[in-house]
Amino acid sequence: MTDLKYGDVSDRLDGHVALIEIQRPPHNHFDAKLIEDLADAFEAMDKDHDCRAIVLASEGKSFCAGANFSASVARADDEVAATTSRLYQNAVRLFACAKPIEAAIQGAAIGGGFGLALVADFRVVSPDARFGANFVKLGIHPGFGLTYTLPRIIGIQRASLMFYTGRRITGEEAFAWGLGDVLAEPDRLREEAMKLATEIAECAPLAVQSTRATMRRGLADAVRAQTDHEHAEQSLLFQTEDHREGVRAVSERRPGRFKGR
User: 2, 110, 113, 169: least buried by Cβ within 10 Å?
Assistant: First the structure.
C-alpha cells in the first residue's frame, strides 16, 4: 500500500486500485492549485506500473461545489482570467490520464466541480448528488470543457437545457440520463466505486488501456481546444456588471437582477 500527498489531495494505492481523494471538506471548492495537485496525483499513478484503475473521491458533504467565486470577486478581472487559464491547462492534464477513472459523487458537483466529475470514465452517484452547470446564473460562459464533455454524455438537448437554465439535477435524474453509471446509497458509495474499479483492474491492463485510448481518442486535445474558447468567453464576461451581480445573487441565494451589461 502506497500513501502520497499533494497539497489537499491524498493518493493511496491498494493493490491495483488507487484512491485519489480531495480533502477540502465540507464542499471541496477548487482553485488552480487544487487542480494542479490532482493532475500531479493522476500523473504519478499513470507512471506506477501497479496502478490499473483510479477512484476519484472527496471528503465531506460535497464532491466539489466548484470555484468559490465569493472569495475571488474582489480580485482584478485580469488576475481571475490568468488563474482560470492555469486551471484549464491542468484540467487538460487530467483528461490526458491513461488509467481508467471512476468518480464517487456525493452532494454537490457544481460548475467546474461538475466538469471535474466528467473527467472520469464512470460516475457512481448517490441519490443526494446534485449536478449543475450554474454558469449563466453567475453571468459567465460554461467552462472546464463542459461544453464538449456534457453533450457527449447526455446529448446536446439535455446539455443545452442545463446550460441555458443553470438548473440542477439529482443523482437519480443523472442515473436516468446516463450521466451516472451506478446509483448507490451514500453509505455504500465509495464501496461501489471501488468495486467497479476492481472489476476493471482484474482485466488485462494493457488491453484495458489500449481500448480506453481508442474510446477516448482525441479527448484531451478536444478539451484543450474547447477550454481555450471557454476561457476567452469567460475573460470577457468576467468584466461585466452581470457577472458581479451573479456572484452577489448566488452568494445571497436569490435570483439575479441582470441588465445585459
Answer: 2
Instruction: Write down the pLDDT at residue 83.
Output: 85
In the sheet with 182-183, reading across from the earlier edge strand, the strands are 2-6, 9-14, 17-22, 53-58, 101-105, 122-125, 182-183
Instruction: Give 10-residue mean pLDDT values along the chain (261 residues).
Output: 87 97 96 96 97 98 88 58 88 97 98 98 98 97 98 98 98 98 97 98 98 98 97 96 94 94 94
**Angle, to 10 degrees, between the axis of helix 146-154 and the axis of helix 219-237?**
120
Contact assessment for residue 28 and residue 110, using Cβ atoms and an 8 Å cutoff: no
> What's the rounded Cα separation, in Å, for the pair 141 and 191?
35
Residue count of the chain: 261
Q: How far apart are CA 29 and CA 47, in angstroms?
A: 27
Q: Rounded to the nearest 5 degrees, what angle is found at the Cα of 107, between the Cα atoms of 114 and 44?
A: 55
| Cell numbers that stand for 83 in this block | 488563474
Beta bridge partner(s), residue 125 = 105, 183
- pTM value? 0.94
